[in-house]
Amino acid sequence: MSKLGNLGARLHRGEVGYDFVGNRKIWYGISILITITAILGLTVRGLNMGIEFQGGAAFTTPKGMSASVSQAEKYAEDASGHDAVVQKLGDGSLRIQIAGIDTDKSDSIKKQLSKDLNVDSESIAADLVGPSWGDQVANKAWEGLAIFMVLVVIYLAIAFEWRMALAALVALIHDITITIGIYALVGFEVTPGTVIGLLTILGYSLYDTVVVFDSLKEQTKDITKQTRWTYSDIANRSINGTLVRSINTTVVALLPVAALLFIGGGFLGAGVLNDISLSLFVGLAAGAYSSIFIATPLVADLKEAEPQIKALKKRVLAKRAQAAAQGEPAESPAANVSDDDYDDEPEDAAAVVGPRTQPASRNRGRGRPSGKRR
To answer: DSSP states of 306-317 as a string?
Structure first.
């Protein structure tokens, strides 16, 4: 633990660094592989949509039921002729969901369930959702997601620039695709709680991304007035400078969500917690990954396609090649650049990283005894 703490402190101070942008092809390949897997899972298995989206009925039995989940599923499928999803709640009651049935059939299904489960029909609570209402819920969910995306792109384009807005949008789509694909592979039911979880993780993913973008924007002011660092080098500085903060906030956020998912949903049997906790858990992890490995390297790619930034990169690489030919130590693009590294640059390079170290005053030492006698 002490070694990890020392490594984090050294990353923050810029004593060490990792070339995230230089290895971006690896991260792009990993993200493409995970995304293809998620899309295949979504295509082959599909989403287990809840009754709020498909329409149907949900029956809740009294507490302390002796029937098992498998028995209740068989009773519900025989009574309705449709697939049923049964969850055992923490108080011992059963929640039986049957999607795609007409609300007119709910009374007959309820009576048959009361006979099979040997309980009073009046003690079974029934919640009915019509198919038209389920379609409205699904449409509103997609509309809300689309509006959120548009507003995010507009804000980032105004606050930063369109390239950063585009990179953030790609990272958000990356996070959504992975989360939905995991839902399809695991088979968890999609409910309005799932939609809430998706919107929550999008905001969290943007938080980490905006922190890096803000640092990158500040450090790349007047970048073309110097010839020591490329845009990718300074992008690495921004990532390494905020890396420890991103890891800490992600771990702290994942711990309570993991408790909801594995303890609340798994051990305590609170199945309703799975709806929101899985989307939060997967989305938080994917959001932290995309803000570091996808969004910022993609911005560097887009910026270095500009003529000015491309010309700067050529000048920097030519200068490094010349220094290497003369036997001078090579600059490491992975290291987190410190303010002192710009002291030997021309005066107009000072704006790249903020205030420079002031040179020693020529008057320093005047009036002090020199040790010589006249």
So the answer is: SHHHHHHHHHHH
CB neighbour burial string for 219-249, b if at least 16 within 10 angstroms, e if fewer: bbeebbebebbbbbbbbbbbbbbbbbebeeb
Residue 352: band (very low, low, confident or very high) from pLDDT cuts 50, 70, 90: very low
**What is the rounded CA–CA span in Å between residue 298 and residue 211?**
16
| End-to-end Cα distance, the chain | 63
Collapsing DSSP to helix, strand or coil, 58 comes out as strand
Identify the three-state secondary structure at position 12.
helix
| Residue 266 CA to its chain's centroid (Å) | 24
How large is the average pLDDT for residues 17-26? 86
Please report which helix (H) or strand (E) contains residue 318, including its range: helix 307-325
- The conformation of residue 63, written as its DSSP 8-state character, comes to S
For 260-297, write each residue's pLDDT tens digit.
777 765 555 555 567 788 888 888 888 889 988 999 99
**For the segment 227-248, what is each residue's pLDDT rounded down to a tens digit?**
888 998 888 888 888 887 888 8
Alpha-carbon dihedral angle through residues 63, 193, 181, 185, given to the nearest 10 degrees: 0
Q: Please, are residues 48 and 188 in contact by the beta-carbon 8 Å criterion?
A: yes
CATH 1.20.1640.10 is held by the domain 2-11+18-49+133-303 = yes
The residues spanned by each domain of the chain are: 2-11+18-49+133-303, 56-129
Kindly state the average pLDDT of the residues 334-359.
42
> How many alpha carbons fall within 13 Å on the CB side of residue 187?
2
Q: Which of 210, 208, 216 is closest to 252 using CA atoms? A: 208
Longest Cα separation, the chain: 119
pLDDT in tens, 81-115: 888 878 777 667 888 888 777 767 888 888 888 88
State both tokens at 177.
């695709």
Q: What is the tens place of the pLDDT at every residue in 42-56?
A: 888 888 877 777 778
Fold agreement (2-11+18-49+133-303, 56-129): no
Identity of the residue numbered 175: D
**Which tokens is 249 given?**
């906030």
What predicted TM-score, i.e. pTM, was given to this entire model?
0.73
What fold is seen in the domain 56-129? Alpha-Beta Plaits (3.30.70)
